[in-house]
Each structure stands twice: as structure tokens, then as C-alpha cells.
Amino acid sequence: MTQAADAPVAGETVPKEPAAEQPAPAAPADGPGVDEPSRGRRIGRLLRLWYGRVLLVAAGLWLVYAVVRWLVSGRWHWAILLDATPPVLLVAVPALLLTASALACGRRRPWAAAASSAGLLLALTTGSGLNWPALWRDPGPVPPGALHVVSLNTQYWGKAAGVDRLYALLHRQKADVYLLQEHVAWTPGRGEDGYIRLDDDARLRAEFPGYFIARRGELLTLSRFPIAAEPPVGPGAELDAAPGTPFNRVFLRDKVLRTDLRLGKKTLSVYNTHITVPLALDNLNPFSGFDFDAYFRRKAAWRKEELRGLERDVAGNGNPAVIAGDFNSTASMRDLDGLRATADDALRANTDFVPLSWKFNAPAEFEMSGLFNRSLPFWRLDWAFTAGPVDLHRYDFRPTDGISEHRMQDLWLSL
Fold it and tell me: Least C-beta-crowded within 10 Å: which of 46, 126, 139, 220?
């Protein structure tokens, strides 16, 4: 019988088939083979997650605020509540958020960075108050014979500090022209009804012999040069047509004093300005039953009328002009857009990177000053402009030795 070809030969060892490879047993869930995050790492991841979420919300909310503020500024009577933010914070807050976005994780990082960058760009292009040319510009020396002009909100004619200190401050300036605001007596606690005319011409002439004097409401201009004319500006024209108007009404509505000065054969128009304040500190109690809507609406209308009147007068004035005073407006508020288009900001001759004029330390004026009278110099409310052929050499903000919350504006110019 024939044996099968594949049958093993007697006595021959048959090799075994290799056994199939078996998978290694899985390690226990808590064994050393699993790289499980520690408790500290889990907490860190959770904190970064929430940090990114909070940062994204903060950046988004700030961007919404910045856009809405810019859209309503100068166009809505409640906008002052949004415009009260110092312009430097409009830059600093999104810059801080942009820096903080680097620590966020995941997709929240680019979104937070984008929102922060948009807020920062909006602030830098719509009124940051930063004087970038001051970093490289040198106005140079003031040439001999230049005209010296100073402007100051005197804080109710030195009411708290004393009028003698105020006169001493003014004399130290040795200015050719003084543009002074709040030359008025004021009784605290009476609000808009507490303003009284100062009849002190005799002392003014004694303190400034040889100067020419012009007055309009609270505005006082003293000039070494003859005053050729004092044409009314804005609401002042209506008040001039009603000579019996009470002084209190004149104080509230006549906010621009134009004087045309004769400088040899040339005439220089000087505008002494104090635009209506949009919000007074004695009206801040929200539980007093005060009609804030009517108040803000009236103040906004007055400010617009004063500024538009000033813009029209400057635009139609053929003389070179200097406009200076307390505008109660910041660099980020759009109230001054029209005047900026008509005249040139004197900041071009200033060397401060962050020019500020208010709110500096000064004596308390009224009962609520204990709460609000703090040195918080974060705003520029005082402005100076030139129009026409005016060569501006220097423009500085000078301290007032605690007499006023405002800095003094100091200008040197030639025609």
C-alpha cells in the first residue's frame, strides 16, 4: 500500500506550527501605563478655559461700548455718560486686553485678540488724546517780539483759593492778552440761579494799568492792544438784542467773547470761550426726582448752538484768529469736529505726549467737593486753536498753584 506523500516518515520529528501571537493583557486602569493629568494640571486647564471665556466677553463688551460711544458722541443728549471716560483709558483698556489675550488658549485667543485690536484701533483713530508728534518734534525757541496769550478757567475768580493769589498768578505770566473764564461770583447750593456779576472794574484797572478790558457774562479779556470791536457770537447776538436780560441768563447763554485787537496795521481776532458744561456735579443724585432727560437735552442743545455759532463766525472771519478757553470737551468727544475742520489745534506746538488740563488739585468749592474734589488729571478740557496766517511758536499747559482745577494755557505766536 503506498504511503501518502505528505505523511511523516517513521521516526522523523514533525515541526510544530508557530503559535498565533496573543495580545498583551491590558494594564489596570490605575496602573503606571496611563499618563493621567494630575489634579493641578486639571485645575490649570480649567482656569485657562474660563480665563479665555471671561477675556473674550470683556473684549467684546468693551468693543461694543467703544463703537456705541463713538456713534452717539455729540449726537445724543445722554452721550455724556459714555463720553466721560478719559481718552487715555479708551486706549489703555483695549491695549491691556490685547496683551492679556496672549495667555488665552484655543480658539478664544484669536477672537479676544481681534476684538481688543478693533477697540484699540478705534481709539487711536477717533480721538486718543495722544500727541504723537511730541515724541520727535521740537518747536524751537520763541522769537523776540512774539505775542504772549494765556487762557485760564479761574474757578469762580479764585473763590476758594483767594482773589489775591489769583492776581499774583496772573501777574507772573506777564502776558499781552489774558483770556479768563468764570469771572463771576457764585453762591453754592443755588445751582444755575447762584451766579452774580462781579463789578470789580476799578480793581482790574488798578491791577492791569494800560490794559484794555472787555467783558461778556463770565468772560473777561485783558489786552495790551486796543480793542477795535466786540461783535457778538452765537447766542450772544440774541442777548445783545435784549439789553434788559438778567445777568444769570447772560452767564448761562453767552459763552464766546470775541475781541478784534489792533496790532499795528493788522487785526487779530481773539475768541475767549467757555462752552456749557454737559453735566454739573450738583445734579448727580439719581434719587432726587430730578428730570435728567430734560436737563441733558437742554445742555446738549446749548452746547451745539454755542459751538456751531463759533464755527460759523471763525469760518466767516477774514482776520487771523486765536480761539482758546474751556470747551468742556475731551479729545474723544465729537463735539469739536466742526471746529477742528475750521481751525488748527494748537497742539502742533506742544511737547506733551499726553496733554492734560483737568482735573488737578484745588480747594473745595461747595459741599459735594469733599466727595469729588480729588486730583484726577486724566482729561484735556481746555483747548486752543488758530485760524488764518498765525505762526504758533509754543503751546504749553502751566500749573496754577492749586488756584484752579484747570491748567493754564500758554501760547506764543506771531502774525
Answer: 46
